[in-house]
Every structure is written in structure tokens, then in C-alpha cells.
Specification:
Strand order of the largest sheet: 3-4-2-7-8
Strand content: 35-45%
Number of strands: 9
Helix content: under 10%
Number of domains: 1
Radius of gyration: 14 Å
Largest sheet: 5 strands, antiparallel
Shape: globular
Number of helices: 2
CATH class: Mainly Beta
Structural class: mainly beta
Order of helices and strands: EEHHEEEEEEE
Distance between the termini: 14 Å
Length: about 120
């Protein structure tokens, strides 16, 4: 069951948006491998980067569920599944060149979350 949706309008600089633990330190240029480019999803400890089709402000919706959401593959062009560790409990939602203290953040329920 969905607990809450979060809606954002973020600038997708370099054609990507990130969800990351506020203390994650990753060189984003190193995680965009050929496989990540094909999946449109780059992963590293504490960070999820999603490729966008546009280098501009784009809408992003994050839905928080208490269980895995029902699979509806016909509704989507691409589905990825991954985990993220959020040891600080604060998940920052941002473009890759944004200034963290000014960016929205979600409070994670525990140290681990799963993304679909």
C-alpha cells in the first residue's frame, strides 16, 4: 500500500537525477558504465542516479510504499529495481550539480530502502 507520494521538479543537469544518502561521496562520472547507460540507472553505495531524456527541469515522483508495489509492466517503458543504503536516514533528491543544503530530502524509514 502506498503511504505517500512526493512530487518534485528538478533540473536534470547532465541528463540525470540522483537519490542519495546525504553523506554519500561518489564520483558520478565513474558509475555511468555502458551497462548503466543501457539501463538508464547508475548505482553506487548510498546513491541511485536515473538518466533522463532531457537536460532541463523534469518532474519526478517518488512513491513510498510499506510493501513492494504491484507490478504493472504495461504502464512503463522501462522498469529497474535496486536497493539503496541510507545510513543517515536522510535521502536527498537532487540534480547532480545541485547544492545539497538547499535540496529537498526525505527521511528514510531505517537504513535500507528499495527502489523500483
Amino acid at each position: 500500500m502506498m503511504i505517500k507520494p512526493y512530487n518534485f521538479d528538478l533540473f536534470a543537469d547532465y541528463f540525470q537525477l540522483c537519490l542519495q544518502d546525504e553523506n554519500a561521496e561518489v564520483d558520478l562520472s565513474e558509475i555511468w558504465t555502458e551497462e548503466a547507460i543501457d539501463r538508464k540507472l547508475a548505482l553506487a553505495p548510498g546513491i541511485i542516479c536515473v538518466a533522463t531524456a532531457r537536460n532541463m527541469t523534469v518532474p519526478l515522483t517518488i512513491e513510498v510504499h510499506d510493501d513492494a508495489p504491484e507490478e504493472t509492466p504495461g504502464d512503463w517503458d522501462l522498469i529497474n529495481e535496486c536497493n539503496i543504503e541510507v545510513p543517515t536516514g536522510k535521502l536527498v533528491v537532487c540534480g547532480c550539480t545541485d547544492y545539497f543544503p538547499e535540496e529537498p530530502a526525505l527521511l528514510a524509514d531505517g537504513p535500507f530502502s528499495r527502489g523500483y
